[in-house]
């Protein structure tokens, strides 16, 4: 992690590679809390690592049952952390059930929010010399709000 000031000037490195305190192996999410702490989700070490606003290591919170994925980490206004997880092993032809683990600032899992399955209509992509042509795909999307609730919407309604 590299920290820059508001003018884009490099300030310092934050943490380093590894498995010890203040170290990380695979950053799958990074967020800044309302009190300017830097929180990262590191599924390879199965933990959330927190640095202060100056980049100094503060604490880590172990989190089990989560997975490697983009958009799998968030922080709400109250300072709770959310890490996306998956129930059961993936099965051919079926989408696995996903959820958000809600972890309080002290590192305790305090809730589990189910994420509705994302459905989409069948579609295709046509590869041409001019690029990829994609039809408008009707689908359902989900998001986590800053208040800690799941929001669901469909793009054709």
Present the secondary structure layout:
Blueprint: E1 2-4, E2 10-13, E3 16-17, E4 23-24, E5 29-32, E6 38-42, E7 47-51, E8 57-62, E9 73-75, E10 81-87, E11 97-103, E12 109-115, E13 126-128, E14 131-133, E15 140-144, E16 150-154
The separation of the N and C termini measures: 40 Å
Characterize the main sheet. 4 strands, antiparallel
Order of helices and strands: EEEEEEEEEEEEEEEE
In DSSP terms (H or I, runs of 4 or more residues), the helix count works out at 0
Number of beta strands: 16
Shape: globular
**Which residues sit in consecutive blocks of at least 5 with pLDDT less than 50?**
none
Strand content: over 45%
Radius of gyration: 18 Å
Helix percentage: under 10%
Mean of the pLDDT scores? 84
Helix-strand category: mainly beta
Question: What strand order characterises the main sheet?
Answer: 5-6-7-8
Characterization of the model:
The structure is a single chain. The chain has 157 residues and is an all-beta fold. It has no helices and 16 strands. The chain has strands spanning 2-4, 10-13, 16-17, 23-24, 29-32, 38-42, 47-51, 57-62, 73-75, 81-87, 97-103, 109-115, 126-128, 131-133, 140-144, 150-154. The strands form 6 sheets. The chain has a 4-stranded antiparallel beta sheet with strand order 5-6-7-8, with no helix packed on it. Strands 9-10-11-12 form a 4-stranded antiparallel beta sheet, with no helix packed on it. Strands 1-2 form a two-stranded antiparallel ribbon. A hairpin with a 2-residue loop joins strand 13 and strand 14 (131-133). The mean pLDDT is 84.
